[in-house]
């Protein structure tokens, strides 16, 4: 049974961060240990006046990671990092994860550089140089990153407005990171508001574009679930050494699962398409149906089903 250490947010009620990742990974046979970067009553979409809890202070986060990685120095087959609210938390996570990867080169690390979306930051600005250090350092030990286009632009240091600029940004980051999955692109780049576009890129290979029909609603925790499922697929891909299975096949499989989870969530909340941020009742409906989707996470196991694979970028 593989074991994972996940450092990202925690909410008592609802499903984002570690709450969105843990149960699906357990269903897939992972033993999951969680280190919480924040501990909130619920996610911030309910409105800041309805969010209670605290950010894990640097010293506390350091103590937790120092303790678990010191006591169990060779336990983890994979590391996952997600939402980290400030400079000190990114620094702390990076320091401990890099030390662990140095000592355990057979493990893999998926980093979701959570900073914002659609031109808007939702972390402190001081995290930006810290993520750049992790992603662009010659001694970078991150195996996989899952930025959206806005986060990729931040790491790249330049805007991305077309396919050539996207390929240039990917090439720059591939100097240090083997696998990049851009989880959503600006629809204007493809002049297609009816689909979500995802880019998968393996170092040394041409990037592949995947196209998924847009479900016109707002959901929370989707990126956290995506990263968790992707880590599972890539870990198994690397472990199998099966050259016939491609990265885009694994991403395609994860996207199929995500679509089914979103449809399952909608089936429980038919009014979700008109839900509004900041409304407690609407936000509750937007929570992913993580438990109800327990039979979906395995996927169909078929590499021949490539319904979302669109074309080379």
From TrEMBL:
Matches recorded under InterPro entries:
PM/HMP-P_kinase-1, PyrdxlKinase, Ribokinase-like
**What is this enzyme's EC?**
2.7.1.35
Q: Which CDD domains match?
A: pyridoxal_pyridoxamine_kinase (cd01173)
Q: Family per UniProt?
A: Belongs to the pyridoxine kinase family.
Which Gene3D superfamilies does this one have?
A: 3.40.1190.20
Stretches assigned to the Pyridoxamine kinase/Phosphomethylpyrimidine kinase domain: 81-230
Q: What protein is this chain from?
A: pyridoxal kinase
Q: Which domain of life is it from?
A: Eukaryota
Print the keywords alphabetically: ATP-binding, Kinase, Nucleotide-binding, Transferase
Which Gene Ontology cellular-component terms appear in the entry?
A: cytosol
Single GO BP term: pyridoxal 5'-phosphate salvage
Q: Which molecular function terms from Gene Ontology are attached?
A: ATP binding; pyridoxal kinase activity
Top enzyme class, one word, equals transferase
NCBIfam families per record: pyridox_kin
